[in-house]
């Protein structure tokens, strides 16, 4: 019998339950998928704690890789036996499972150069990095970015991609071990926010000018320092709220700090068009398959250990990517 992780009420990691589940035949537009690896993402905690409201009970997880074992009517983008990966939002919720039914539309065929484990560790983070690097800002060689959580899954990919584009990367971390990891993946300068003033240090590193773009996945705790790190007419890209949502503020603040820009993008809007998703995925797979970008998988969990995995994630004990191995 297939296994899955579900939750019946919102709350801390302890609400997650490891259960048996019956997997039927795929309906129209669906496939049955046997998972090989499942991604663990910070967004999963938002579903679990109620930040992203969903009907309950429900499954959890939005990213996995595996093999198509059956296809339903009106499916023409994949075939039985093909290797695939996927990520999404509500339409792919339930990835913490050994086998499941899933809509065929989000599935991406997996090239032989990419393993199942690598795919589960990078589909969401990699596509996020892809649109951040290729769609958000018209980067030019020599531009400088500030990258919060530089030792995280997205951070390690973005820093490597940024170096391919000729950018200068300033990364923030909380420990020496994370500093060493971020440096090894392309960060030119490291700021340890546990004992350094981020905005002050950024000004020192940029001769008082500030950076072109800040990628901020932390949210509430770093919002003001992110704004204070930007050059005139710089861009703040809010890509997560690990420390909590950004509090309401008067937009006049952006003008006062240098006519700044701010955006809060979502991956779903950059992969909604199949053609654009294919373009972003193709470039990502090419970089990873050729070894230009390395996917760091530093935590492996069994599916039944989802509670501990969420505890580690929220305690910021993880680096790089984390996966469940089926």
Automatic annotation (TrEMBL):
Residues 11-324 form the Enoyl reductase (ER) domain. The keyword tRNA-binding does not apply. It is an enzyme of class 1 (oxidoreductase). Keywords: NADP, Oxidoreductase. GO terms for cellular component: cytosol. Transmembrane segments: none annotated. GO terms for molecular function: mRNA 3'-UTR AU-rich region binding; NADPH binding; quinone reductase (NADPH) activity; zinc ion binding. It catalyses: 2 a quinone + NADPH + H(+) = 2 a 1,4-benzosemiquinone + NADP(+). It holds the Pfam family ADH_zinc_N. SMART domains: PKS_ER. Signal peptide: none annotated. Belongs to the zinc-containing alcohol dehydrogenase family. Quinone oxidoreductase subfamily. NCBIfam families: PRK10754.1. This is NADPH:quinone reductase. It comes from Pseudomaricurvus hydrocarbonicus.
């Amino acid at each position: 019998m297939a296994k899955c992780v579900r939750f019946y009420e919102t709350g801390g990691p302890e609400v997650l339950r490891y259960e048996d589940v019956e997997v039927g035949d795929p309906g129209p537009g669906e496939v049955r998928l046997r998972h090989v690896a499942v991604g663990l993402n910070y967004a999963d905690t938002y579903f679990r704690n109620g930040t992203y409201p969903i009907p309950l009970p429900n499954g959890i997880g939005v990213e996995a890789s595996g093999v198509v074992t059956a296809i339903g009517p009106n499916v023409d983008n994949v075939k039985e036996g093909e290797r695939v990966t996927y990520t999404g939002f509500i339409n792919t919720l339930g990835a913490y499972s050994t086998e499941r039914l899933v809509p065929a539309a989000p599935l991406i065929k997996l090239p032989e150069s990419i393993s199942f484990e690598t795919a589960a560790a990078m589909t969401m983070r990699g596509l996020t990095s892809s649109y951040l690097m290729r769609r958000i800002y018209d980067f030019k060689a020599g531009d400088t970015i500030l990258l919060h959580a530089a030792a995280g899954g997205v951070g390690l990919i973005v820093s490597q991609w940024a170096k391919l584009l000729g950018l200068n990367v300033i990364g923030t971390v909380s420990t020496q071990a994370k500093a060493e990891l971020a440096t090894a993946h392309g960060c030119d300068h490291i700021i340890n926010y546990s004992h350094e003033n981020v905005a002050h240090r950024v000004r020192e590193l940029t001769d008082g000018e500030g950076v072109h773009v800040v990628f901020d996945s932390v949210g509430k705790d770093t919002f003001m320092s992110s704004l204070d790190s930007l050059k005139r007419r710089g861009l703040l890209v809010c890509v997560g709220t690990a420390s909590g949502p950004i509090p309401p503020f008067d937009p006049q603040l952006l003008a006062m700090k240098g006519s700044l820009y701010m955006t809060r993008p979502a991956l779903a809007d950059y992969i909604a068009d199949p053609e654009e998703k294919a373009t972003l995925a193709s470039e990502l797979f090419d970089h990873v398959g050729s070894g230009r970008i390395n996917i760091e998988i530093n935590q492996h969990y069994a599916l039944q250990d989802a509670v501990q995995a969420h505890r580690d994630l929220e305690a910021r004990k993880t680096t790089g990517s984390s996966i469940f191995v089926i």
